[in-house]
């Protein structure tokens, strides 16, 4: 199991994330404490994947000034998503999840795609925004620059990611930096 503590650079915030391989796949579990214009917010989340790094379940619980909100999604690994057994058609084709408030979910496509240095690959993600849980289907392109550096492009936005050997983000310049790990 790997544990990382990130500090938010563009606002007040910390996040603790645990990443581990399980008998059936992989698991990300985290808690983020973030400042928002309305007051402090706590977000607890978990993501389970299968052995090929395809997202299978996503859970999030947001506690803050707007009250408690929960989200639970399931996926079949082939691009079909549902909430309480009801299909979420607008996410059709998404294999990965992107929780907008954390760098942790970049770990999933980075490991699943397995791209070499100088190569790139595209994936479709189910992006979940903070704090309102709006969900959208988004196309991403990951490019591996060197042993530990990737870029992630989505529309007009390009983000640099520096990762460790497990694919966990150590630095997302301007947004997150790892300050401790276990």
Give me the secondary-structure topology:
Elements: E1 2-8, E2 13-21, E3 25-36, E4 39-50, E5 55-64, E6 67-75, E7 81-83, E8 86-87, E9 96-99, H1 107-113, E10 120-128, E11 135-144, E12 149-154, E13 157-163, E14 169-172, E15 176-181
Parallel strand pairs: 9-10
Antiparallel strand pairs: 1-2, 1-15, 2-3, 3-4, 4-5, 5-6, 6-7, 7-8, 10-11, 11-12, 12-13, 13-14, 14-15
Number of helices: 1
Strand content: over 45%
The rough form would be described as globular
Through-space gap between termini: 9 Å
Order of helices and strands: EEEEEEEEEHEEEEEE
Q: Strand pairing plus helix content: what structural class?
A: mainly beta
Rg measurement, Å: 15 Å
| Number of self-contained structural domains | 1
Major sheet: 15 strands, mixed
Features of the shown structure:
60% strand, 182 residues, mainly beta, 15-stranded mixed sheet
Account of the protein in words:
With 182 residues, the chain is mainly β. The chain has one domain. The protein is built from one helix and 15 strands. It has a 15-stranded mixed β-sheet, with helices on one face. A hairpin with a 4-residue loop joins β11 and β12. The longest helix is centred in the middle third of the chain and has 7 residues. It starts with a strand and ends with a strand.
